[in-house]
Design brief:
The structure holds 2 protein chains of 2 kinds. Chain A contains 6 helices and 3 strands; from the N terminus they run H-H-E-H-H-E-E-H-H. By secondary structure, chain A is α+β, with helices and mostly antiparallel strands. The chains are: A alpha+beta, B alpha+beta. The interface between A and B is medium-sized, with 23 and 22 residues. Bound molecules: zinc ion.
Amino acid sequence: MKRLNVKNFNSILSPLEEDLLQLLWPDKSMKVKELYDILKKQKKKAALSSVAVILDRLYQKKVVDRKIETAPGGVRYIYYPKKNQKQFEASVVENAVNTLINKFGSTAVNYFNERFSKRR
Amino acid sequence: MLHEILRLTETFLNSPFKMYISLLSVLFAITTFVLIKRVQKNRFKVLFIYLHLFFLILPPFMFAFSLGCDMNVLSGLISNCAIKVTETVIYTGIGAIILSVLIGYFVMPKLFSSKNTKKLKEKTILRFVNKEAKKLGIKTPKVFLIDDAKPDAFSYSTISSSIFISVGMIELLSKKELEAVLLHEFYHVHNRSSLYKFSTLILRIFSPLSRFASFNKDLDDEEAAADNFAIEKQCTNKNILNAKKKINLFFSSC
Ligand SMILES: [Zn+2]
């Protein structure tokens, strides 16, 4: 799987968000604790609480979804991707383009026209 | 009309019996207010809060009653309308009781269940809650699960008691840390903290005297006592401290 270029994306995703999404995107369902354990093995320092916060944030952003699992000894969320990597990237691009058009109107539109006609 | 009201107010003030009851009532209101701060147990504090409110509203209630009666507004409702003070007292009392039962039964649970909650089904936690309730000799509180990743736990006790705990709290804490949090809530349930907290709120709204007393310190003490309860039961402060550390970290993470 192609890894996102962290340098270009770190304004959109924090390093920890990026790490967690890379783990979930191959269509996996995982508990907070499992994700935390994997990151620990990869020597990426993140507290369990921080992993939980980031996953909650990704859930609020509707990038991942979750369901409650009740098992002997505990209750927890199982997180799984809601948007795959392609869909997520598409939504990022869409947002960026919308922002540019909203802010710069015709300047942005003209630029895009020029840019795309060149490419063709 | 206004002249009529003024005239009837004068009759009210000139009625030695009504004035006597009113003054006595105000005196009781002040006494019970002082007692709220003096007694230790929350159940007595709550009792005095409601007694205070009762004595506070009695004189205006009586005045309104007597005014309505004299102006023939209520004559259709109460036979012969010889405004009996005893009747007023009984009606006020019954009204107050019905109101507090309604609040206890319906309003309080509604306030909490508006959050995304459902009954907790996990056996280990339920067993622990059951065991601790037996030890304390209280009715086992209902345990509800809040569908939220933020670590959160609270409880209320009116006629029945309930403990609420979020998924985030359970998945973040170890078994012992979770037990420490549950014990903390058990203290609140046992001590009727939520009822006291709720009652001070009502007091703040309805009693002008509440401006002269702060209940924040009482409520802070309540939290410290709940922590101490958990520490004593577990013979260590390690778990409750670790739990707090994890919770604080969650809310300070970015
Ligand atoms: Zn508390």
